[in-house]
Write a structure and sequence with these properties.
There is one protein chain. It is globular, with a radius of gyration of 21 Å. Helices cover 56% and strands 8% of the residues. It is α/β, with parallel strands linked by helices. The protein has a 5-stranded parallel β-sheet. It contains 12 helices and 5 strands.
């Protein structure tokens, strides 16, 4: 999934039922694969809005103008889900080798994960989470759903962790965050921190490195963890070429939550003894 569909989907799911915004999102998602052949007037007509309304809509979506919006949609078309040419490697594997073989492979990946996780890295991060006045957790697409799970699990432990589903809101947060903030980034590939990650045409993600917030990166990309601005690196691994990070990242948050419980009990015991 790429940024055009990502932003449209998030806005659609955050819109009031039967609102104008919802209708525009639905129509654009229906025709996104055909934008290369459509002028702004044609697209506006299909959305049943004026050209000026469509222009304002795509600007609010985070694009410079309609041309920028269209260029991103066209550029992404061949590799995205728009035409059904791409999908999760996990889904392709299951389709080709069937579910029973996938489960065997997943079992091996879980074993690799458990034997390879560095608990010292996790414990450093847990201490930082406990002590930080403000904590946020971010990711893109599937990793953002992991961040959301983490937010809810930490809420049950009376630790407030924030998140923002929209990538634009994440960027705004990072630009405003101060040194008392810790941002936990879930990114299997590490592309969240790079300018060639999910992005609009000719844009940069340099704001990740420039934020004043402390940064934790949870990833399987060893090179990304060597970036000097990553304060709390946490590396995980799995054996296969199948992208099982959806499961691995959820294992990670459960490891973090379990270690957080232990750390909090220890601190509270010391305070009360």
């Amino acid at each position: 999934m790429y940024i055009v569909v990502y932003r449209l989907t998030n806005l659609l799911n955050d819109s009031q039922y039967d609102s104008a915004t919802m209708h525009i999102c639905r129509k654009l998602l229906e025709i996104v694969a055909d934008l290369e052949q459509l002028s702004i007037d044609q697209v506006a007509a299909k959305c049943n809005v004026s050209k000026s309304t469509l222009s304002k809509f795509v600007k609010n979506l985070g694009f410079e103008n309609y041309k920028d919006f269209r260029e991103n949609a066209v550029r992404e078309k061949e590799d995205s889900l728009y035409t059904g040419n791409a999908g999760l490697e996990m889904e392709k594997y299951i389709e080709k080798y069937r579910m029973d073989n996938f489960l065997k492979l997943l079992s091996k990946d879980v074993e690799e994960f458990m034997s390879g996780i560095d608990l010292q890295q996790v414990r450093r991060l847990v201490k930082a989470i406990y002590e930080a006045p403000r904590v946020a957790a971010f990711g893109m697409v599937y990793s953002e759903t992991v961040a959301m799970d983490f937010v809810y699990q930490m809420a049950e432990l009376r630790k407030t962790v924030e998140t923002r589903i929209h990538d634009i809101r994440q960027e705004e947060y990072l630009k405003k965050a101060d040194a008392d903030t810790l941002v936990v980034i879930f990114s299997n590939t590490g592309q969240y921190i790079y300018k060639n990650g999910m992005k609009t045409t000719n844009s940069s993600r340099s704001f990740v490195g420039k934020t004043k917030a402390k940064k934790a990166l949870i990833t399987s990309n060893k090179a990304a963890l060597r970036e000097p601005y990553i304060d709390y690196p946490v590396l995980f691994s799995f054996t296969s070429v199948v992208q099982n990070q959806i499961f691995m990242e959820r294992l990670i948050i459960n490891v973090i939550v379990d270690e957080y419980k232990s750390y909090r009990r220890r601190v509270e015991w010391e305070l009360n003894s």
